[in-house]
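Journal club prep — side note

Before the paper discussion, L.F. wants everyone to see what a predicted structure for a comparable chain looks like in token form. Sequence:
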Amino acid sequence: MNGLSYTNDIWVANEMTHLLHIDSSIQGDASTSRKLSARAAAAWRAAHPDGTVTYRDLGAHPLPHLDADSGLARSLPPDQHTAAQSASWSLTRELVAEVKAADVILLGLPLYNFGPPSVVKSWVDHLIAPGLSLDAETYEGRLGGREFVVLASRGGGYGEGTPREGWDHSEPWLPHAVAMTGLTPRFITAELTLAKVRPAMAELIPLADESLAAAERAIDDLWAAARV
């Protein structure tokens, strides 16, 4: 038993400080970002044995994207909402409330086609909600003051000096995407995750192993002081 109960597609544990744990990979048990986020969640629980956890799996249970029927819900007064807009606004309220309830947010973030999974984009779009996540008049963010750790993975290497330098459009995007809410993400990243499954990348396996080990060490250092 892990001390969690399952309710309405969300896992919830009991009491004290609160963790919001989000996964977005479609790779299941093969996902590096899921393994990293699970490791981080375990580290958090070890440091906060009386804490509570909410788990949302965007890969298994994707959020609806904003569309022509629902998208304006965040721009119109609730008393002017259509039925579709009202449903979308209710979901936005739920998602923002999850963030507000959390002291720490963990987000598993793989790289798909050089960008974030579309389900993460949808999650962010729902979070940009005047009157909820930011002040409706000043647009000052209301979600700051909580720890936001992103466990990222990417199949290749896109750092300075690599052949595809700058092709990762996920990590640069997220801080800007959530900036209006006051959230500031911290990234822990494992790269070259495809080295062991693509023969053309075989010579990069040692670098992939080093990257994964460094990410795991960084995760293990999270909340280490609280575990002493």
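L.F.'s comment for the group: The helical segments are 32-47, 83-101, 118-127, 173-178, 205-221, 224-227. Keep this in mind when we get to the figures.
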